[in-house]
Specification:
Blueprint lengths: L1 H26 L4 E7 L5 E14 L2 E6 L2 E4 L3 E5 L1 H18 L12 H12 L3 H4 L4 H18 L1
Antiparallel strand pairs: 1-2, 1-5, 2-3, 3-4
Length: 152
Amino acid sequence: VSQYAQFTQVSEVQAIGEAMNSMKAKDLVGEYAILKVTGENGNTDYISGKVDYVTYENEKAFLSINGSLYSIDDLDTVASEEYMEAYELASNVAEMLKSLPSVDNLTSSYKETVDAIDEKTSNMTDYQKTFLDKSVFDKINEYVAKMKKITE
């Protein structure tokens, strides 16, 4: 009887947890979420986007993000729109920097990319700039200075 009571108690706690997740899911509509999803190959991927709506199947909440449904159990982070914009901008700048050769090997054919990076970072807000390390801005300044020398 005691074991049965413990089993019932554990089941009730799990049910309360699932009910709380369902209630939490409704509050996520319109928010930016990052989900930690395990793919069929076993690799972990991160999916991010705005939660469009919530649907329920068998009393389990699913979040609609970018046109796909994900379990509320995969929720990793909820972030503000400002945070997501800053994060994506910083990621974009980092990817653009990776596409460039070293400063010593820079040629005029990379002018468009260097100008685009310079423009993006020049237009960043103070908050957005916190997503990039000072060394990144130093490196961008090196590229800009070198490009100026090349194209003069």
